[in-house]
Design brief:
It is an enzyme of class 3 (hydrolase). Its EC number is 3.6.3.-. By secondary structure, this protein is α/β, with parallel strands linked by helices. The chain contains 7 helices and 11 strands. The C terminus is likely disordered. The structure holds adenosine-5'-triphosphate.
């Protein structure tokens, strides 16, 4: 069943065309990742799917039950954790809110204040706030980018499990090639307003970064992102090959300080 359908999408800001001729179909339960250099319109596409931005041309069909998790948790500091999770929902949503907190490993945190949480915990609250709305479409705008490398890996694992259980259609915007290959059923590279490459990732879960097939996917995507093997650095776009890792020679990666 199709969850999202985009046809002939075009979006410009003033004289600058950001997205041009985008066609996209995402199935229910599919995990779709969007990679691309900085400023190529990834967030704009996500905002259009969220209904926060209107296209200039084309059609966009997206389910009404959709929710976004951003890079920063965006919690209301004056409300306790459970109230943040159920913000805007009827009082009867309290139990579902507690269940969502338990699902993200935050049982017993309902009465805590946001200021007392670590960055990873706060981001898990944001995830619970999304889950409790039972989204048909989950929009993830670099949700792990501000986390330390270890927390990021744990969060990726958690999101993979939650999405496998709840089966929303997911659109993940990321700069992290490994994250995309680890999580997605399909990865698209956005360049100069349109899709430069579309790559299905048909690897079984859990995915191992050292698996030759994983490395092959990573190398191909990096080449489409303009990362030249052996450069030892990421391009100006800020694209990374993994958590705290930059591309070295083909298939080899080194940690950055
Ligand atoms: N409201 C706006 N008004 C004018 N220009 C905008 C607006 N929103 C985005 N843009 C421009 O559109 C282009 C695409 O922005 P967008 O945030 O979608 O890129 P991105 O691929 O998500 O970038 P990044 O990876 O750096 O987050 C940029 O040049 C940006 O300056």
């Amino acid at each position: 069943m199709t969850a999202v359908r985009i046809e002939g999408l075009r979006k410009a800001f003033g004289a600058k065309t950001v997205l041009d001729g985008i066609d996209l179909e995402i199935r229910r339960g599919e995990f779709f990742a969007l990679l691309g250099p900085s400023g190529t319109g990834k967030t704009t596409l996500l905002r259009i799917l969220a209904g926060l931005e209107l296209p200039d041309a084309g059609t966009v069909l997206a389910p009404p039950r959709r929710t976004t998790v951003y890079q920063e948790p965006r919690l209301v500091q004056a409300r306790r954790v459970l109230a943040n999770v159920t913000l805007g929902l009827p009082r009867s949503a309290g139990d579902a809110g507690l269940a969502a907190l338990a699902e993200v490993g935050l049982e017993g945190y309902g009465t805590a204040w946001p200021a007392t949480l670590s960055g990873g915990e706060a981001q898990r609250v944001a995830l619970a706030r999304a889950l409790v709305r039972d989204p048909e479409l989950l929009l993830l705008d670099e949700p792990f980018a501000a986390l330390d490398a270890l927390t990021r890996l744990q969060m990726q694992e958690m999101v993979a499990e939650l999405c496998a259980r709840h089966r929303p259609a997911v659109v993940l915007v990321t700069h992290d090639v490994d994250e995309a290959v680890r999580l997605a059923d399909r990865v698209v590279v956005l360049r100069e307003g349109s899709f430069a490459v579309e790559q299905p990732i048909d690897l079984p879960a859990p995915r191992d970064r050292d698996d030759p097939a994983f490395i092959a996917h990573r190398s191909l995507l990096l080449s489409h992102l303009g990362v030249t093997p052996g450069s030892g650095v990421t391009p100006r776009s800020g694209v990374t090959a993994g958590s705290g890792v930059t591309a070295g020679s083909a298939g080899e990666y080194r940690h950055t300080p």
